[in-house]
TrEMBL record:
Entries under SMART domains matching the protein: PKS_KR
InterPro entries tied to this protein: KR_dom, NAD(P)-bd_dom_sf, SDR_fam
Ranges for domain Ketoreductase: 204-381
Superkingdom, natural source: Bacteria
Protein name according to UniProt: 3-oxoacyl-ACP reductase
A GO molecular-function descriptor: oxidoreductase activity, acting on the CH-OH group of donors, NAD or NADP as acceptor
Family statement: Belongs to the short-chain dehydrogenases/reductases (SDR) family.
Length: 444
């Protein structure tokens, strides 16, 4: 990481904090072996999932009565019973007395029914309204507390509620420390709980592209921490970093340019030769930027970014699917960007590819569901990497702070979201793009 300039040190100092420059409250991240949350949680609301919620949550969490005064590290509100616009006042009556009792780094989660799957007009309106509530409350929270909305398919009830468990464990823990103001949709596809929630990827074989450094290296480490074997892929020129990551995660290194027309075959062959199995988790992390205003952008800058960021992930996935080279309940994960959602000056090439990744996820979700798998994308915002450290001081310091958590994220924040998608406990999480951006003001 680049050395901090004097100006950067000053902006991030207690003196600047006194002068009103936002510094962001320290994020409490997940540590293996520690409880998922540092204080009890409250379960509120009344709907078709309330009993199941209490049953699933009383295992990993301590539950607290809503009336109690002691601090709560989490609140889960079942809003599936709000079926008319008039019912939305229950959001106010429940949350209003709760807010001042939440601990630092608290996790608030509202559960609703997926609006587009509801026939009744009143219920559909009430379910859609939850988005405005959660996104606004997320912007009001302080001390690194976050708020999310989980839309649950109407076909999910207490008999198949286990499909929602991996999402709750992710959102109600330090794994989602830099995820804020997000909406995640859960389907009724059967999800398989792991034998050990601390090793949810045990027995899974994962491929991570762009693993020599930055976010990709940390994704490889996080998947390995969770029990996966990892094939680390990067261009031959990045060999040193690639070997370092592979050694660290006790995986294998495969020097390979993802734009190689034979890339899919080489991946499948490596998996068979070195592990004797198919690929279970495919993380398309390799990506490049070549920023220029469109008026000044030559063909090579346009084409390189398209080929690496979008065309390679699409063609590799199609070929592996067609060849039957993906394993049981395969998880495919794309890496998008908030630039692909909001657009960014100087990044027409990059934002095209990152929005394309969202289209890629959407186009393949039914195909992956057919074979018991899932496909999702993570969309990072400002993440502290070599790339962002190299930005000029002004845009960097603004970029870090223009989000509800008022700080940049760490590569591990992206990696935790990828690991959540990668588990067979998350096959019911399909077709989502989850932003890891601290609820950046850029994009929805
Ligand atoms: P990085 O430049 O540090 O790492 C990217 C890695 O991809 C490098 O090791 C590089 O060698 C590899 N790579 C490039 N071209 C390749 C190819 N043709 N074949 C195989 N490997 C190739 O970048 P990063 O910041 O770690 O970003 C990782 C991903 O996250 C990218 O897709 C990026 O667009 C995305 N992202 C990053 C941020 C951020 O703030 N850093 C924000 C949004 C999205």
């Amino acid at each position: 990481m680049a050395k901090k300039s004097f100006l950067e040190q000053l902006i991030n100092s207690p003196l600047a904090a006194k002068a009103g420059v936002p510094q962001g409250y320290p994020l409490r991240r997940y540590k293996q072996g520690e409880p998922l949350l540092h204080a009890p949680i409250v379960v509120g609301g009344q709907g078709r999932l309330t009993d199941a919620l209490n049953t699933v949550l009383e295992g990993p969490y301590k539950l607290l009565k809503a009336e109690a005064d002691s601090p709560r590290a989490g609140i889960v509100f079942d809003a599936t019973g709000l079926t008319r616009p008039e019912d939305l006042n229950q959001l106010h009556s429940f949350f209003h007395p709760q807010i001042k009792k939440v601990a630092d780094n608290a996790r608030l989660v509202v559960i609703g029914t997926t609006p587009e799957l509801i026939d009744d007009a009143d219920a559909r309106i009430a379910a859609r309204a939850l988005e405005g509530f959660t996104r606004s409350l997320a912007k009001e929270m302080r001390k690194a507390a976050t708020v999310q909305l989980v839309y649950v398919d109407p076909a999910i009830d207490s008999s198949n509620f286990s499909t929602v468990e991996s999402t709750l464990r992710f959102l109600l823990s330090g794994k989602s420390a830099y995820v804020d103001g997000q909406v995640i949709r859960v389907t009724p596809a059967p999800a398989e709980a792991p034998a050990d929630w601390e090793k949810p990827l045990a027995g899974r074989l994962a491929v991570v592209t762009g693993a020599a450094r930055g976010i990709g290296a940390v994704i490889a480490e996080t998947l390995a921490r969770d029990g996966a074997s990892v094939i680390c892929v990067d261009i031959p020129q990045a060999g040193e970093g690639l070997t370092a990551t592979a050694n660290k995660v006790k995986g294998t290194a495969l020097p390979l340019d993802v734009t190689d027309p034979a890339a899919a075959d080489k991946l499948a062959q490596h998996a068979q030769e070195r592990y004797g199995k198919k690929i279970d988790v495919l993380v398309h992390n390799a990506g490049v930027t070549r920023d220029k205003l469109l008026a000044n952008m030559d063909d090579s800058k346009w084409n390189m970014v398209q080929n690496i960021n979008l065309i390679a992930p699409v063609r590799i996935t199609e070929k592996l699917l067609a060849a039957g080279a993906l394993g049981e309940k395969p998880a495919v994960i794309g890496v998008s960007s908030t630039s692909g959602i909001a657009g960014n000056r100087g990044q027409t090439n990059y934002a095209t590819t990152k929005a394309g990744v969202i289209g890629f996820v959407d186009s393949l979700k039914d195909r992956l569901a057919e074979i018991g798998g899932n496909i999702n994308a993570v969309a990072p915002g400002f993440i502290e990497t070599d790339m962002t450290a190299a930005m000029p001081t002004g845009p960097r310091e603004v970029g870090r702070r223009i989000n509800s958590l008022q700080q940049g994220g760490q590569p591990v924040d992206v990696a935790e979201t990828v690991a959540y998608f990668a588990s067979t406990a998350s096959t019911s999480v399909n077709g989502n793009t989850v932003r890891v951006c601290g609820q950046s003001m850029l994009g929805a």
